[in-house]
Amino acid sequence: MDLGGRPAVPTLIDRFGRTATDLRVSLTDRCNLRCTYCMPEQGLAWLPKQTLLTDDEIVRLVDIAVRRLGVTEIRFTGGEPLLRPGLVRIVDQVARLEPRPKMSVTTNGIGLARIADSLAAAGLDRVNVSLDTLRPDRFQALARRERLDDVLDGLRAADAAGLRPVKLNTVLMRDINDDEAADLLTFALEHGYELRFIEQMPLDAQHAWRREDMVAGEEILAQLRAVYDLEPDPVDRGAAPAETWLVAGHTGLDGRPAKVGVIASVTQPFCGACDRTRLTADGQVRNCLFGQEETDLRALLRGGAEDETIADAWRAAMWGKRAGHGIDDPTFLQPARPMSAIGG
Ligand SMILES: C[S@@+](CC[C@H](N)C(=O)[O-])C[C@H]1O[C@@H](n2cnc3c(N)ncnc32)[C@H](O)[C@@H]1O
Ligand code: SF4
Predict the structure, then answer these.
(1) What is the C-alpha separation between 265 and 217, in angstroms, rounded?
(2) pTM of the predicted model, to two decimals?
(3) Which residue of 35, 39, 211, 276 sits with most ligand 1 atoms within 8 Å of its CB, as the best mutation to test the pocket?
(4) Which residues, in sequence order, are CB contacts of 200 under 8 Å at separation 6+?
(5) In this structure, what are the phi and psi dihedrals at residue 220, rounded to the nearest 5 degrees?
């Protein structure tokens, strides 16, 4: 078979020497919030139901990824993954795969209070919960819904269910919550959650992102340092997107030094170490959040393709991964799909 210069190895390698082992699976493009950096007030034209992968199709693709492609970590995301009725069943099935991958969910936390115990019992390891503010009025301004209490309840339930470490994801927006970095860290330290700030990226459906408005990682660190002593984390970062810091004088629930992270995707891209591959809710493989290309695995699945044919289409998709996201390149084009549809 002609592999177009691609070495005949089973794993998801690319031309730049990277190997993808971390799979982000979007379970739905729908959401019950309308975060301004993500979606317009009226929502989006959701994917037609018949194009969405079924629960069984998702489990089959994850199985191919784990068994044939060397994927070791699965993150369920969206849209809002807790809106997917089959989530617990999917987690349960994936937990039975050999070799068993590590499994986490990125969620806005709404409904987590109800489902955290079932997710833990089904085999979920961890959750990442998005929390941008601790103030109800700001939550309403940012997410356009009054649901802060639901998110806080969800956090407590996840922690009590043992979905640890509970990680918090925060996006700071200029003139909305850009003064809250230290307060959020105080909250995280008090509860034993691990906080990570994410620079706002040009992935909103409205294409309203402006670099000048973005709160950059350096600014966030300066805010934190005004209140806390941060020391460089001696642990090698590997492919992790967050640069982490130890918060002097504070320990986490595991008794180790407490950490805070900054994901500076825009000002300090980490594309050279990227180990991610992505599957959209309608069965398209993407090799990058910012890429333009997609490979249709749903058509292969529904056309009766063998596992190895699907695996090889996935490998070919990853071989074409570009060196970097190129946000600073004058020719940069925001991807046609917003983050909520790709899976953040
Ligand atoms: C797209 S959401 C999907 C999962 C879930 N609904 C949630 O909010 O956690 C995944 C993560 O992407 C982040 N996000 C969304 N739009 C973003 C943007 N334009 N720039 C940076 N992060 C963004 C969210 O804050 C969230 O932490
Ligand atoms: S960031 Fe998450 S919670 Fe907010 S609108 Fe997007 S998908 Fe929904």
Answers:
(1) 9
(2) 0.96
(3) 35
(4) 37, 171, 172, 173, 209, 213, 214, 215, 266
(5) -65, -45
Ligand that lies nearest to the alpha carbon of residue 241, given by its number in the listed order? 1
Please write the tens of the pLDDT for every residue from 187-216.
999 999 999 999 999 888 888 899 888 999
Q: Please report, to the nearest 10 degrees, the dihedral formed by the alpha carbons of residues 151, 152, 156, 162 taken in order.
A: 40
CA angle 322–24–177, rounded 5-degree value: 95
Distance CA 124, CA 24 (A): 14
Ligand 2 binding pocket includes 297 (Cβ within 6 Å): no
Give the tokens for residue 52.
Answer: 């969405």
Based on the number of CB atoms within 10 Å of its own CB, is 216 exposed (0-12), middle (13-18) or buried (19 or more)?
A: middle
Q: Which two tokens stand for residue 245?
A: 């810091």
- The residue assigned the tokens 């995280």 is 188
**Residue type for position 311:** A
29 lines ligand 2 (CB under 6 A): no
